[in-house]
Write a structure and sequence with these properties.
The protein is mainly α and 267 residues long. It is built from eleven helices and no strands. It has one domain. Helix content is 81%, strand content 0%. Helix 3 packs across helix 10 and helix 6 runs antiparallel to helix 11.
Length: 267
């Protein structure tokens, strides 16, 4: 890794960390930058996951109040399925040849871009539904809905599939989890985001451990990017928050589309 490459990786991670703290989509920045600086695609995917994971861990603390309201059985079941799925996905990635992953990469980027593009309207719809429901409340304390075992089994199966994809690549798993939590009957967008953040941290965390044990991480690049992501998450995010969210999301989608086209043309 040259000095110029280190600078490029630091600023890419800084931007990725800022985007993740505001709208998500940091992987669209960090993964291609690693590849452009000479890191093999599969290793770049693992290294990018390691670099951005600390920011995900830090964001969990912001949802402490919302998490307290959730049923322990729900969190336990979804947490276990997230752990298993994240590990399965990581092992699938490690078992995929570099040549095959390069072929799959543009399709994975395309899927992640589409999921990110629809996440805005879906989240807005969930917020509107929660606001409308809140306006009809009588003022009595709202009780968290009980989840039937059948519904819990279905959501656990869906979460296992999502977690497996998340451990393998991960782009767009946030919106997939919000959608499935909505199907389960959750309505408070803040509580949904809290559960989603915890589950995403578990998925990426077990994947990170698997990647480290397998030696699939380029540590020089990862350390530089961890530092950049921390700076981005805590410093430049304050600037990004003052921007119109539509501009931020539009930028991420533009990058996603551009990277998808690039890797389709160069696979």
């Amino acid at each position: 890794m040259t000095f110029l490459q280190a600078i490029a990786l630091f600023f890419a991670a800084m931007l990725g960390g800022a985007l993740n703290s505001v709208a998500g989509g940091g992987t669209f920045i960090t993964l291609p930058t690693l590849i452009f600086t000479g890191v093999p695609a599969k290793i770049a995917n693992a290294t990018s996951t390691v670099a951005l994971w600390p920011g995900s861990v830090a964001s969990v603390s912001a949802y402490r109040k919302e998490l307290v309201k959730q049923h322990r059985v729900l969190l336990l079941v979804l947490g276990v399925t997230s752990f298993i799925g994240g590990l399965l996905g990581a092992l699938l990635l490690l078992g995929t040849s570099s040549k095959t992953f390069v072929i799959l990469l543009p399709y994975l980027l395309l899927l992640a871009t589409v999921l990110f593009a629809v996440s805005g309207p879906l989240t807005a719809r969930l917020r509107a539904r929660a606001a409308a429901r809140g306006a009809t409340e009588t003022g009595a304390p709202k009780q968290t809905k009980q989840v039937s075992w059948r519904a819990l089994a279905i959501i656990a199966l869906l979460q296992l599939i999502i977690a497996t994809y998340g451990g393998y690549f991960g782009g767009g798993i946030g919106i997939l989890m919000l959608a499935t939590l909505g199907l389960m009957g959750m309505e408070n967008i803040h509580e949904m985001n809290a559960v989603k953040t915890v589950l995403q941290t578990i998925i990426n965390g077990v994947a990170v451990v698997a990647f480290i044990i397998a030696g699939a991480v380029f540590w020089a690049q990862a350390i530089v990017m961890i530092a950049g992501a921390i700076v981005g998450g805590f410093a430049t995010a304050s600037v990004a928050r003052r921007l119109d969210p539509r501009i931020v999301r539009g930028f991420v989608i533009l990058v996603g589309v551009s990277m998808t086209i690039y890797f389709f043309l160069h696979k």
